[in-house]
Amino acid sequence: MAAGSAPGWAVGALGVVCLLLRLDFISCDSQVIYGAVNKNVTLYASSFKPFKEIVWKRGKDKVVEWDDQSEVRAFLSFKDRVHLDTVSGNLTIFKLTQSDEDEYGIESPSVRNNSKFTLKVIESLPSPTLSCALTDGNITLQCVILEAYDTHVELIQYSWDCPSTIQCQSGSKPSEAYVTKEGDLSQEIQCIISNPLFRRTTSIILSTCVPSDNTRHRFVLLAILPALICGLLFIKCFLRRP
């Protein structure tokens, strides 16, 4: 009898867990929050009754604590850098630094679950540089960040804004694109880099990637000019002979 009821008990327990998940009583996921260096970020609490006590933690260390019998108390490097809203339970951190990255959580009898937040602190993106080269009848475009930038580079996304008259083809890397030389070279192509907080753009006119006819003629003239000079000097010397 006991053995036969085990499957039914397991199904019933699973149903309770699913119900609690639907009602937001249990949360296993940590919400990712992005903040910018030297800016502020707010971590939002979710309560079902007024707060009487609150503890925010970074990992296992206290960030701030409060109860209705005492004042708000901040800890460690968060002194004078945090604000706790004792009504909503929200925590605001000011003047963010890279060292603030970590997992944060609120603990209080007024919250249905100990909400977790993973804070990622991102620096502002520098403007990219867009270069081009003509190879095998195609224009190769490359969008790069020349400045030293190593803050969550895995979050950087590259995209291209091409006019409808131009067909842009993706390169072997997201930062590369190809355009056929036969397209409308008077058009402008834009490279866009972005992360969850910032967006930067740069652009180039395709005609600057292809030498004009005058430029090609200039290259030919520069190539044959030394030979012409040598020929004239030889003739001059030959004519001076007695």
From TrEMBL:
UniProt-listed InterPro entries: CD2/SLAM_rcpt, Ig-like_dom_sf, Ig-like_fold
The cellular component terms of Gene Ontology attached to this UniProt record, alphabetical and capped at eight, are: cell surface; membrane
Q: What subcellular locations does the record give?
A: Membrane
Recorded GO MF terms: signaling receptor binding
Signal sequence coordinates: 1-28
At the top level of its lineage, which domain of life is listed? Answer: Eukaryota
CDD domains given in the database record: IgV_CD2_like_N
Which keywords does this Swiss-Prot/TrEMBL entry list? Glycoprotein, Membrane, Signal, Transmembrane, Transmembrane helix
List membrane-spanning regions. Answer: 219-239
- Protein name as annotated: Lymphocyte function-associated antigen 3
- Organism, per UniProt? Balaenoptera acutorostrata
